[in-house]
Each structure stands twice: as structure tokens, then as C-alpha cells.
Description:
The chain has helices at 13-31, 43-64, 68-89, 100-122, 127-149, 152-181. It is mainly alpha-helical. It has one domain (11-176). Helix 1 (13-31) packs antiparallel against helix 2, helix 1 (13-31) packs antiparallel against helix 6 and helix 5 (127-149) runs antiparallel to helix 6. The radius of gyration is 17 Å and the shape is globular. The mean pLDDT is 94.
Amino acid sequence: MxxxxxxxxADPGPLGLAAFAMTTFVLSVFNSGIVDKSATxxxxxxxxxxxxxxxxxxxxxxxxxxxxxxxxxxxxYGGFWLAFWYLNTKTDLSGAGSHASxxxxxxxxxxxxxxxxxxxxxxxxxxxxxxxxxxxxxxxxLLFISEASGSVGIGHVAGFFGLATAVAAWYTSFAGVFxxxxxxxxxxxxxxx
Length: 193
């Protein structure tokens, strides 16, 4: 009888990174001011089904592969996207008045802190993942500053950092898929020895 629990499974990392990249890209187009924020609701479906559910699935399979970093990252950011959706569609902050922005700022600061410690953990893995987390850390920090200060300009800068984060995540995902399907050529990820 085959031991199905110890059979190798495909790397779930590229799926998690792709889900993260696409959802981040769409939201960042609005945050950057490229497209007016009035259409931001188009990201909510992605936040639930791809950024949220897709990353939760990737994270669950990272647990199976015994990859603690991947499991924590994907399950956490999947949770972020589900919380983002809930915050924007189900949470009524009208009673908070002028404190609503402070509440959202604390939410963003918490994610900046989490991303900072994940960045410290990934620095020893490869440059591709390090760039994703470094750019994401700056994005969350700028989003926090924008929300805390009410600065639309800083929010736009955060959006452009979010776009750079999405590109870095897409590249890392693409390299993961390409490097397993190509027999002759490999894309560089800057692996550490």
C-alpha cells in the first residue's frame, strides 16, 4: 500500500504568491490614484476568493510540506485579505467618527509589524522573496502613515509601492512555475548558499 501522506506534492508557493500578487496589484491601482478609488469594490471578490481563499489553500499545503515560513505567510496574508474584505463591506465605523481612521491605521500598523518580522525571517532564503517582503513592509508602513495623517499623497506613494510589491511577487511566482516546467532554462531568484 502506498504511503499517501509522504508522497511529494507540488510546491504551493507559486499559487500563494500569484494570489497575493494579483489582489495586491488590483488594490494598488486604486491606492496609487491611477484609477479613481470609487471603483475599489472590484477588488473585494479577489480579496475573498483569490487573495484570501487561494492563499489559505497554499498555506495549508505549506504545512503539509513542513514549510513553517510559507504556511505562516500564506495563511496570515490570506487572513489579511479576508479581513480587508470584511472591514470594507461588513464593518460599520460610522459610530467611530473621527476615530475611524485611527482604527484603520492601527490595523495597517499591525500588518506592517508582522511583515517586518517576516522580512527578517526571509532575508536568508533568496533575493526574490526578500524583495517581496521588503516592498510590502514599505507599502504597509506608508499606508499606515497615510491613514494616520490623512495624507492622500502618501497613500498614492503607498499604492506605487504596492504595485512594485505585486510585480516582485508575480516574478517570484512565475519563476517558481517556470523553473519546474523548463528543462533547459531557469529564472534567477538569487538563492542564498
